[in-house]
Design brief:
Layout: H1 2-31, H2 35-48, H3 52-65, H4 70-82, H5 86-99, H6 104-119
Helix pairs in contact: 2-3, 2-4, 3-4, 4-5, 5-6
Length: 120
C-alpha cells in the first residue's frame, strides 16, 4: 500500500514540476514580450542625438542576441555612414539590399550616394 502512495506522490511531484516550468515560461513571455523593441528604441534615441559611436559600441551585441532582426544591421550601417566609414557601411547596405526587401529602396539610396562620392 505504501508503494502505491509513493508512486502517487512521485507522479504528483512530477506534474507540479512540469506545471511550474510551464508557468515560468508563460510569465516570462508576459513580462518580456518584446525585449528587442527596447533595444531598437535605445538605438533610435542615440541616432536622434547623433551618438553614432554609442550605436557602434552596442549594436554588435544586439545583432548577436537577435540575428534575424534587420533593424540592428540598418542602424550599424547608418552609423558607419555618418562616421564616414563608407567602405564598411557599403558592405552592410549591400547585404541589406540583397536580403531584406523592406530595406532595399533605402539601402540602394545609400549605396548610390557612396558610389557617387567615390566617383567625384
Amino acid at each position: 500500500m505504501e508503494e502505491k502512495i509513493d508512486i502517487l506522490f512521485y507522479l504528483f511531484g512530477t506534474c507540479m514540476i512540469l506545471w511550474a516550468l510551464r508557468t515560468a515560461f508563460t510569465i516570462k513571455k508576459l513580462l518580456f514580450p518584446r525585449l528587442n523593441e527596447r533595444f531598437v528604441k535605445r538605438i533610435n534615441d542615440w541616432d536622434s542625438k547623433a551618438e553614432y559611436n554609442s550605436i557602434l559600441e552596442n549594436v554588435d551585441s544586439y545583432i548577436k542576441m537577435f540575428p534575424g532582426e534587420s533593424d540592428f544591421v540598418w542602424a550599424k550601417a547608418r552609423a558607419l555612414y555618418k562616421l564616414d566609414k563608407h567602405d564598411d557601411a557599403l558592405k552592410l547596405f549591400e547585404r541589406l539590399s540583397k536580403t531584406e526587401p523592406s530595406w532595399k529602396e533605402s539601402a540602394d539610396g545609400y549605396i548610390n550616394c557612396i558610389n557617387d562620392q567615390r566617383n567625384e
